[in-house]
Amino acid sequence: MNRKTLIANIKEKKSFLCVGLDTDLEKVPPKFLEADDPIFEFNKMVIDLTKDHAVAYKPNTAFYEAYGASGWNSLEKTIDYIGNDHFIIADAKRGDIGNTSGRYARAFFHTLQADSVTVAPYMGIDSVSPFLAFENKWVILLALTSNSGSQDFQLLKDEDGLLFEQVIKKSQEWGSIDNLMYVVGATHPEQLKHIRSLIPDHFLLVPGVGAQGGTIQEVADAAFTKDCGLLVNSTRGIIYAGGNGEGYQERIKNAAAELHNQMKTYFT
Amino acid sequence: MNRKTLIANIKEKKSFLCVGLDTDLEKVPPKFLEADDPIFEFNKMVIDLTKDHAVAYKPNTAFYEAYGASGWNSLEKTIDYIGNDHFIIADAKRGDIGNTSGRYARAFFHTLQADSVTVAPYMGIDSVSPFLAFENKWVILLALTSNSGSQDFQLLKDEDGLLFEQVIKKSQEWGSIDNLMYVVGATHPEQLKHIRSLIPDHFLLVPGVGAQGGTIQEVADAAFTKDCGLLVNSTRGIIYAGGNGEGYQERIKNAAAELHNQMKTYFT
């Protein structure tokens, strides 16, 4: 999906909601465990319930790899089922030497048909560039992540600035607003505003709303632009909002609708 | 595999050779393409030809993911076939928020039964710790990688030193010589010696010998210890040494034997 279509989808729906599909069979309602492919069946339900509220889906590969080849099969089916009307993020946090990153790009862009993949910047240019060579596909580069460990290295400072600032600056030479986004955690609202000033036109993927403590309002106030420029992700706050008891479908839908309603107020 | 067994295997074989299994179907002899599972059949041949020379195998997950669920199936079969007599490195360069890294640990240590997994440090402590919670399993943390992009961020310097030095220092608080190794590229022999002085007892996984330009002698002269302390990886220089013509099996075996012979001279 290209930038123009992504922005059009966002404006039409008045939503910048991304739903994380980190499906854990220890947390889904027990009836799904009876299915041939419980992960896919649960995802299918979540997608059906949230598709009018979300513009993007973000399966995290760890939750599929935990089940080996069968988990990868569920991931393939999930991405097929999402289809072309939503932006698909393979949250994989990959990155390797050039030759090898090229194979990952093939895995996520050709074999899986995702629109984008999250990439870790530690290994530098040749670990990122192979992903940028695919037309209408995106790299979402880790800048300032939402977790507590983000303090360990991402805030190291040399004469040219903090490490995450240098990741943002240096990577501007590798990609453009048409194929490069950044991950910035909602748990750092003050830094979100600063990062928006560094990159006024790039999309930001913002995890950390809900279970991790950030809010839509903090994120949008800090970084919403005329093109929106945001994809805000919620995972546990939506897909496990239902619990196991009767009416879980309604609670999942309501959780997505509630975030959508908050988002609508930013579109005039 | 624990440290004691790893060292015993190394000393018995007089080898610290790790063979990379980055199997690319565009590069294997055409007869393998006729097999039901070409990747596994090629790996099986490489393992049979090199097992007396190598102490470790390192499949890189990118080469399997490029083929989707079927590639993961080949990876599972390959790891089963290697068995318990060799140290198995899942070269995956993973790392995510704690909850998610825990799922990756399950994928590589339970579902795949690898001994170790390579981990990217960018996301800090909670992205690494979940892997360290498994007994007799190892994290191999990226420190100074072999690729050209290693210059982009790994050499950034603040008052506490270069980024890769800080990754090494900080991670000492998270793991020990019994569950934590580091990736240091053979393309940086001067830094290898320096890193060995920082961590005299940790194992180092050293890629970059052969196709990438490093040599066994440079690496061993810089960082060989009384416990060896090294796993030196060669991939393309071994698994594609055979080419497609007659006698390729002998050429693969000879390529591994040649590195093994160089390594033997370091054991008295």
Brief write-up:
Chain A is of the alpha/beta class and 268 residues long. Chain A contains 12 helices and 10 strands. In chain A, strand 4, helix 6 and strand 5 form a beta-alpha-beta unit.
Task: Characterise the protein shown here.
The structure is a homodimer of 268-residue chains. Chain A is 44% helix and 17% strand. Chain A is globular, with a radius of gyration of 18 Å. Chain A has one domain (3-264): Alpha-Beta Barrel (TIM Barrel), CATH 3.20.20. Chain A has an eight-stranded parallel beta barrel, surrounded by eight helices. A two-stranded antiparallel sheet of chain A has the order 6-7. The first copy, chain A, has 268 residues and is an alpha/beta fold. At the A-B interface, helix 3, helix 4, strand 3, helix 5 and helix 6 of A face helix 3, helix 4, strand 3, helix 5 and helix 6 of B.
Portion of residues within helices of chain A:
40-55%
Q: Into how many domains do the coordinates of chain A divide?
A: 1
Oligomer type: homodimer
What order do the helices and strands of chain A follow? HEHEHHEHEHEHEEHEHEHEHH
- Distance from N terminus to C terminus of chain A (CA atoms, Å) equals 24 Å
CATH architectural group of chain A? Alpha-Beta Barrel
Instruction: Kindly provide the radius of gyration of chain A, computed on alpha-carbon positions and rounded to a whole number of angstroms.
Output: 18 Å
β-strand percent of chain A reads 15-25%
- The top-level CATH class of chain A is Alpha Beta
In the predicted model, the low-confidence regions of chain A spanning at least 5 consecutive residues are: none
